[in-house]
Amino acid sequence: MNKTALFVCLALGLLWGSNFIFMKWAVEYISATQIVFARLVLGFVPVFIYALSRRQLHWADLRHSGHFLVMACLAAAVYYYGFVRGTELLPSGIAGAVSGSIPLFSVLAAVLILPDEKFTRPRVLGILIGLIGVVTIARPFDADLSHASAEGVAFMVAGSISLGLSFVYARRFVTPLNLSAAALTTYQLGFAALLMAFITPMNGFDAIYEDAVATTALVVGMGLLGTGFAYILYYYIVSKLGAVGASSVTYLPPVVALFIGAILVKEPIEPIDYAASALILGGVFLLNRPAKTRNDS
């Protein structure tokens, strides 16, 4: 990995990992639905400008609007809403740690739905270990913790499952369209923003302006940088490292979120939460290991 690609990976991990504390600050003033709508609109602008400058947007693509709408729901609206609600109910560091389970549900969805995807020993072991980590963080049977812990994890898992299903849908129906990643993301965010515009109540939205930190977190942190600019950085990493190499960036956001939550904002994160986070990341690591063949020694 060259130095530029390494720097971009670190920057992307920081942007995505810091989104959780930004959500935490913003949700104190406006609803989760309003946050999702604002993030989609603000994230759409940089991606649209980027794709337009590279001449990757075409009116003819709109004949695939049905697929774009499905992707908008799975990979944007539902995914973002689940994460905002989960972060509202959990410490931001814990929410970030649970977000590390996205690859677990992506692989599980692919194996269960796509006929050419199979269970392998590393995959089965990785999924089991990762899910143990998720359940450990949720602690649904711990009477000393509030229901918000399990409910928050459930929202995070719902968002992760939604994103995982979007990968399966994209592979089955969208990849054959041969659209660029920038174009697909532009259509995805645009359709999701339009969808959320119809269901998002705007009354009380101006409450976010009561706090400059929360406003900056929403507009700059989550929207322009954490969504729009982050996607552009991701395109760069994919172009330099390929899709497999770029997937390594998924290890960084949970670590960044835990660091911010525990060290910078002093959230009540317990040793068992760190152990559970390690299980989630360990499970994801096993997922990325190739299965041994009979010729392997």
Quick summary:
It is built from eleven helices and no strands. It is 74% helix and 0% strand. The radius of gyration is 19 Å and the shape is globular.
Describe the structure in your own words.
The chain is globular. The protein has eleven helices and no strands. Residues 293-297 have low confidence and may be disordered. 74% of the residues lie in helices and 0% in strands. It has helices spanning 3-26, 32-53, 65-89, 92-99, 102-113, 121-138, 147-174, 181-199, 212-246, 252-264, 271-287. Helix 1 packs across helix 3, helix 1 runs antiparallel to helix 9 (212-246) and helix 5 crosses helix 7 (147-174). The chain has 297 residues and is an all-alpha fold.
Topology:
Elements: H1 3-26, H2 32-53, H3 65-89, H4 92-99, H5 102-113, H6 121-138, H7 147-174, H8 181-199, H9 212-246, H10 252-264, H11 271-287
Helix pairs in contact: 1-3, 1-4, 1-9, 1-10, 2-3, 2-8, 2-9, 3-4, 3-7, 3-8, 4-10, 5-6, 5-7, 6-7, 6-11
